[in-house]
Every structure is written in structure tokens, then in C-alpha cells.
DNA sequence: TGTATACGTCAGCCTTGTTGACATTCCAAG
DNA sequence: CTTGGAATGTCAACAAGGCTGACGTATACA
């Protein structure tokens, strides 16, 4: 690895895209792209005195209405204290509704209110617009590859969560 | 857009990958993948009592040795106060050396020390390993598409910074 | 009845971002 | 030579959003 090549690059096949330099460019691309990815929602959120954490909660509540707190916790990968702080302000501000479960009354099922859905679609529109431009610029084959690599980059449990969401509404 | 299709999806061409649902899946893929992307370095950093901000500084100093603080500031997109705090601890801990500029003595040129380079390569190895696995799993065409979409997702100034780094050491 | 689960909450800590104010050093233009 | 502005560093204060630990309540279930 000290020669700037991955072990695979040395063995037989011509895997130039696996050189350390190519991998590093991929790493930097992820870094810079993620900044672009969050830039538009961040601006909107700032106007509403919210942060990225609120966006994430709103996004996944919209994606899976009626989801429980525990479920959301697993998807977001934060502690319940962190999530609760965000969730509490969203409920107080009337963007999220928390309903006690019908079967299991310990659970709280989360829903966006009308106001919550309005903010969600404002954020979502902005982020999709960026995505759409990038997708159109890159073309369908590139998009397929993009998603393939991203999926391969996820931790196993996140990949499961991702696929579950896809099937749910795909 | 209320019908779940992008405007482009309606006009003539069959651009199914631009439906709102497809775009949303891309958004979620970015979110989950970025978690995986940072997971390995984060674990290593925690052992050293550092955070992601230290990683970013170390990465780009390694990438462009002798870079100035201002240059780093632009690349990282944070305030000088934020960067300075991180940089100060790295200098105090002997991972980064800050040399006063030869031509312009106001500038500080940043270099990794041996210890800094050691941590950099530990972090880098871990992150590259994840990237390599993902790349190998997805294949060369997917990788090309991945990078194409990421580049298209960046803000203009970040795309310039990204390309400059690529040319520098590509 | 006792244990486990789901959720909320309080307190405190850390990292990492922000703004504002101010000092220093130095280049360059007048 | 002086002065304006750029590059850098530093102090202070603050906020978001992570974290841990501890504790309480309601519910479910064996």
C-alpha cells in the first residue's frame, strides 16, 4: 500500500479505479458533494431556527408516517435524548403530532401536521431540485452507478433500513 | 410536482430516474452512505480524543502540504476561529507544524509531522478500505457514475476546489 | 407480581460551529 | 514614510446537537 496502489491493483487485473489516488478522489468527492447536498435545506432551516437534526426527523416521519420513536431512533442512529430534544420542539411548534399507540400504549406514533408537511415539502423540493439537476447532468447510467456505490458504502444495518424504506414506498 | 413526478418526467422522454421517488431514494442513499463513510475514521479519532474536524484538517494538509490557513479555510468552509481551535490542538500535540511563510511572512504554511502523517495514514487506510470494498462491489462503470453524480452535486466553488486538488496530485 | 420495554426528562459534558472585537504583522500603494 | 488593508491569531460568549448517566412512569407480558 506504500506504493500508492491498492493490493488489487497489483494482482493481474487492470483495476486502475482502485488505486489509492482514485480512492482518495472518491473520498474528497463525497466530502464536497455532501456539503452541496445539505446546503439548500440548511439555508431554509436557518430561516425557521431549525437545524439539520430537525430536517432528518421531519424527513423520516414524512417517509414513514406513524413510525414509533424507537424506530426513528434506529434509523437516525442517535440517542433518545438527542432525538427527544428535537422532537419536543417540533411537537411544541405544531409540526409533528405524537399519538399514543392503539395496540401498545407505550409507543408514540409520529405524524407530520399540515404545517410540518408544508416545511417538509419546502425542504424536500429544494433538495430534490439539487438532486434532479445533478442526475440530469450526469445521466441515467451514472445515476445507477451512483446508487450502487452508495449502497455498497453503507453499514449492513443501514443498508437494511435503506432497503426497507425503498420497498415501503418504492 | 404534486403528482410525484418531476417536470422532466412528464415531457416526452422517459426519465424514470428523475421521479420524486427516485430522487428521494438518492437523498436517503446519500444520508445512509455518508454515515458509513465517516464511521471508521470516527472510531479511530475517538481513541485519540479527536473529532471529524481534526480529520478534515489532517486530510487536506496531507493532500496539499504547505497550504496556508486561508486556503484551508476556503476548502473546509468554516470560520477561522473554528479552524484555529482545531489547528492549535494539532500543533500542540505535535501532529501539525505551522511554518511562517518565506515570501509573505503573514502566512502560515501547514505541514504534517511524522506523528501527524502516521495518524493520517491510519485514518486514510480505514476510509480507503471502506471505499475500496464499495468500489469493488459496484464495479468500474458504477464508480465512474458515482463520481460524475457527486461532482454534479457540488456547489460551483467546491467543484473548483475539488478539481484543483485532482489536478495537483491526480 | 415482577421484569422488561417504550418513552420522557433532568443534568452535565464535549465537539464544533457561529459572531464580535481586537492585536499583530506585513505588503503595497500613495 | 505613512497608511490602508490583508492574513493571522486570540479572547469571549453562545448555540446546536451529539453524548452519558440516572431516574420516573406507563404499559406489556410471562
TrEMBL record, chains A, B:
SUPFAM superfamilies: Winged helix' DNA-binding domain
Pfam families the record matches: MarR_2
GO biological process: response to stress
Entry annotated with the keyword Metal-binding: no
HTH marR-type domain segment(s): 20-155
Keywords noted in UniProt: DNA-binding, Transcription, Transcription regulation
The keyword DNA-binding appears for this protein: yes
InterPro entries according to UniProt: HTH_MarR-typ, MarR/SlyA-like, Tscrpt_reg_MarR-type_CS, WH-like_DNA-bd_sf, WH_DNA-bd_sf
Protein name in UniProt: MarR family transcriptional regulator
Single GO term (MF): DNA binding
